[in-house]
Amino acid sequence: MLCSTCRIRPPVTAEGLCILCAGPAGASAPMPAAPPFASPQQQLRSPDGLAKAVVILLAVCAAADLLAVLAGLNIRSLLGDALGSGLATLDDAEANRADNLYVASGVLQLLVMLATGVVFILWFRRVRLNAEVFDASMQQMKPGWAVGAWFVPIANLVLPRRIAGGIWTASAQTHTDGSWRTVSVAPVNLWWWAWVCSGLFSRYASQQYMKAEGAQEVMDAAGRMLLSDAFGIVAAVFAILFVRKLTRMQGERAALGVYPLS
Fold it and tell me: What's the angle, vertex CA 247, arms to CA 187 and CA 237, rounded to 5?
């Protein structure tokens, strides 16, 4: 049986209204709990553990990016001094060490990024399944897309943000009188655009660095890589803020004990 007004949520009043449609009058009504024998997609599971792992890995990503920045500065300093003297002072052994350090920092970035990506997607799937319990009507795509959307070329620049928007809206805690609380989507937008721009610029910078041949070209390409790595640090910070905020929102929403069912 559904609310006689919105036809979405279970009724909590004698008039057949849900807690949101009943307004203040429904705030004192018994709050329906999630079905005790619900299907897996209708059971809440805490995202806290995965969120902590994601935050730690994102911090490691930022540290790896910082190491890459330092390695890039070392290369630029070495080449800058050499170019000032017409390459006469360039020490091949020192140049090789600087290049090896830069390559090693790049490998570290890749490994950490892969590990972070796996755990982040697991967390993203968890909060998406919880959002299905909070309010399935807010979700425009099936829960499976919380994983699949990241692997669709081109579309992965749009679909995950669309899914995140539905999760964010459904996870917004309601006021004590049952009305919806408006929560700014700024953390979602900052995370998403920083991630997309960082990824696209990183690909461009990497291609330019691989094509560079002369000392001046290598120095210029290293400068672009420096900017890319710095952008990666910013993206990691925004991602941490997004993960922490959404995880906290879901904890507050779950504590409220109201789970609209479609």
Answer: 45
